[in-house]
Amino acid sequence: MQSRRFTLVMAAVAFIFFSFVSVAAIAQEAPKSIKIGASISLTGRFAAGGIDVADGYKLAVKHVNDKGGILVKQFNKKIPVELIIYDDESDPSKTVTRLEKLNAEKVVAYLGEFASDMNIAGLGIAEKNKIPWVGVTIAVENVFNQGFKYIFGPNMFSFMEVAAFLDALDKIPESQRPKKIANFELQVDWGKECTKYLHEYAKKRGYTIALEKKFAPDTKDFSSMIMAAKSEGCDAVFAVPTPPQSMALIKQMKELDYAPKATCFVRGPDLSNFWQVMGKDANYIMTSGEWTPDMPYPGNKQLVADYRKLNPNKLMGMPVGNGYSAFQVLADAISRAEKLDRDSIRQALTTTNIVTVKGKVTFDKRGVGNVPHVLAQWQNGELVVIVSPDYKTAPVLVATPWSKRK
Amino acid sequence: MVERKKGLVIAAVVIVALALVPLFTGREYVFSILCMLFLYVTLSQSWNILGGYTGQINVGQAAFFGMGALVARLLWVAGAPFYLSILAGGLSSVILAIIIGLPALKLRGHYFAIGTLAVATIAQITVGNILPGISFLPAQQMATYSLIPRYYVFLIIMAAALAAIYITVNSRVGLGMEATRDDEEAAQMVGVNTFKYKMIAFVISSFFAGLAGGGFAYFNASYYWYLPFTLMWCFEPILIVFIGGVGSFLGPVIGSVCYVLLKELFALTLGEANLLIFGIVFILTILFFPKGIIGLPAKLRQLFYRRGNVVGR
Fold first, then answer.
1. What is the ipTM of this complex?
2. Domains recognised in chain B with CATH numbers
3. Which residue of chain B has the CA closest to A101?
């Protein structure tokens, strides 16, 4: 009787032991993929930039998966990445629901979007859900002063854009160098931040802000601003308009025969369709050069070659490389996190130090990216880098009057 | 009368069932979609009482929605209880409606529509210029953010809007509104104070649009201040009401279900093609079912009846 009871107890102990062992084994089983999510404007008014960003992500994921995926130490193996992209139709309300959908699908991290409206709606959700969010083109520094922990911006910020613009002016020979800057301030916090830094840096570097005009995000007629800059004798213009506004501004400047020596529109001319839309009128326009196809950083040649193979008739816009670089930053963090949980990935992101296709990326305590300050200029159909801290760049071309352009 | 009671019982059961949803799921995605659904039901229903029942085409609903969002967010972030902030948002929209309504409701037809669109555009530009920045929730509120209270806020606002509008349109006031819509001059001839009914409809409409805006402000963690004033909030309620059925109580509800849930389903499964499909569906609805989906059974009955007659002959 006793031996029977002993046998039963032993059987029960063995059952419990093996149950635990098998549960532990299941728990250690690697997932089939690492899920990363993004809500991007693939349709609607921001689609041009959104598609570029998505193309960059897809190519980066392909390159990682071609090598077997990301090595995750927890499972001691490479796991392929599954990128889930939903279209938010350029509607911030949809960004919110799409990101919640991605949360339900258990993504380990979010990748950012092209346009600010969507990014602003999205990063709040990321912070709420405690999911690391790696942005692409979020240039507003103020966002990072809110004490958020899960938001990272591996891109140029307003203060870097202003500094790069003034660096470009410095490169122009003294005899031709513009001195009087017209600042067209977009009435959003990015525009306000740029104005703040433009005043601060211009004064230190011997430039004068001779004219300041504000405009709203939906302004279409800039003629009064342009005429004011012309009559004030401003020989440089700085602005961060929306992409359609940058096109309208250049057209109206041509109509009003205003050709300052240097014109920098940080947003718009950096998109792949800009030259196609503007043609030769895009010449001499400076823009964000955060990433260009001719950058000498590792992996960039392969990115450009593969993109051109996939899109033979399309020019590569800056957001393609920025998207690619953002994914490199995230993949590096996942690999260093050693685990596939969101907090470990966030922790790893804080210690990022990686050279991506657009140069070295680190973050400060707020999540603000420290990246090379770069500016580019359209020169005969090519977007060439004119300012970079890392390598020799092309000379800055001074714009000629509209009447003298062929 | 029996039909009406049956309808009320069904509505009560649906509301109670929706109130029990958080007991059965904790999925935030479900809550976020349902929050959007309730918001659009409220907003489209609020448009319908003025546009559908009273015949005054308001193309400036964003001004009232945005005003509610602005006031509610400012008060809430400043430390006021969220329910009082949302209520204040609704009341501020009413004040705006009275200020605008006194001159604007004397306009008729297209002029009223153009006037309201102008108000919405002015409001968007003004807010964009005065508050160009982002509204963030303070870190403390962000740390305790949960969708469940937001879900109940939207549900309560929607239930209140449905109840208030149902009671109004089934009362003498509702008759006055319909008389104004059907023939304003004839109504005036028989002694109906059409301006009064238009104003009542405008006040109710803007109050619930303002409450929906307050819900939006409570729901979103971060957004540009001008976002609730964008013209999207003017056109989407109109689209929804036309899909569901103008001037019917259930039309905006059905339209919202189609617009939010079906569109979400299409967007997730069909990708970018969903916009094309939804656009075609909308055009076909307007062309062949001018009374919206709510008019579909009657239209089908009519078709079958005609065919039956032809066969019978």
1. 0.82
2. 30-274 (1.10.3470)
3. B29
